[in-house]
Amino acid sequence: MYCSLKNASIHYVTYGEGKPILILHPLATDHRSMNAWLEPVFMQRKGFKRIYVDIPAHGKSKREDWVKTTDDMLDLLLQFIDKILPNEEFSLLGMSFGGYLAQGILNKRAAQIKGIVLLCPPTRTLERTLPKRVILKRDDDLFDGLDEGIAQAFDLLLATQTKETLNMFLEEFQPGRLLADREFLASDWRTKRYHFSFEPFPEGSVYEQPALILTGRQDYICGFEDPFRLFNHFPNATYSVINGTGHLLHIEQREQVQFFIGEWLKEL
């Protein structure tokens, strides 16, 4: 369904009833990359309304010409929240760039937010601390005849490159890649307007909400160290560096990620 705003619209899908959780997907895909693996978690945990959003310039949320910066994307998401969750409490779950947008939402709507999950999140750090690239397991035959663009993305994002992880990538992540606004994502937005114009975690800010921050030990896209700079901002947080995974930890170490999220849900 679509939420019409004053100067754009946001596409989203909802499941279930209960406590709202706003779910934001990674860059260059859409909401389907999240609900495919999260819904099994919620089948075991009733009482939550899941709101899966196509962030601006992704999926069916088309980018309007005025959207130039990540601040602009955040503004649209805040309008969306104010319209569908007016003065309601809700939780946030964001992965990668979706996790960065979640940090901006937390900064602007902290009083409404009950809890937050950040999966492989970038932070305000301009120069990321990244591990050396490591491929833990690779089946070279997988790349024979594979579309070049798919092969490059799969090779870039995953440290465990097996038939199983490729199938999950193709089923869950790739469909959204076909709808992303690639012209915009490849523009100078990426180098000049990716970061917020403000610091999401100003010095001394503290968020008491239950938080979960998961990173991949072999993630050389966002790394695993920088999110720990948020430690003092979240006194009620669980942090974990998951070994055996690159940037798409929900594909490479799915059961561990699902377990951690299930435990976080108990705190809401």
How does this model look, in words?
There is one protein chain. The protein contains nine helices and ten strands. It is an alpha/beta fold and 268 residues long. The model has no long low-confidence stretch (mean pLDDT 96). The chain has helices at 32-43, 70-84, 97-109, 148-157, 163-177, 182-185, 189-192, 249-252, 254-265; strands spanning 2-4, 9-15, 19-24, 48-53, 90-95, 113-119, 137-138, 160-161, 211-216, 237-242. Helix 1 (32-43) packs across helix 5 (163-177), helix 1 (32-43) crosses helix 9 (254-265) and helix 2 (70-84) crosses helix 3. Helices cover 33% and strands 19% of the residues. The two termini are 27 Å apart. Strands 1-2-4-3-5-6-9-10 form an eight-stranded mixed β-sheet, sandwiched between helices. Strand 1 (2-4) and strand 2 form a beta hairpin.
SSE inventory with pairings:
Blueprint: E1 2-4, E2 9-15, E3 19-24, H1 32-43, E4 48-53, H2 70-84, E5 90-95, H3 97-109, E6 113-119, E7 137-138, H4 148-157, E8 160-161, H5 163-177, H6 182-185, H7 189-192, E9 211-216, E10 237-242, H8 249-252, H9 254-265
Parallel strand pairs: 3-4, 3-5, 5-6, 6-9, 7-8, 9-10
Antiparallel strand pairs: 1-2, 2-4
Helix pairs in contact: 1-5, 1-9, 2-3
Structure in a nutshell:
The protein is α/β, with parallel strands linked by helices.
* Global Rg: 18 Å
Determine the N-to-C terminus distance.
27 Å
Got a strand count?
10
SSE topology string: EEEHEHEHEEHEHHHEEHH
Coarse shape = globular
* Neighbour order of strands in the largest sheet: 1-2-4-3-5-6-9-10
The biggest beta sheet, please? 8 strands, mixed
Instruction: Identify low-pLDDT runs.
Output: none
Helix content: 25-40%
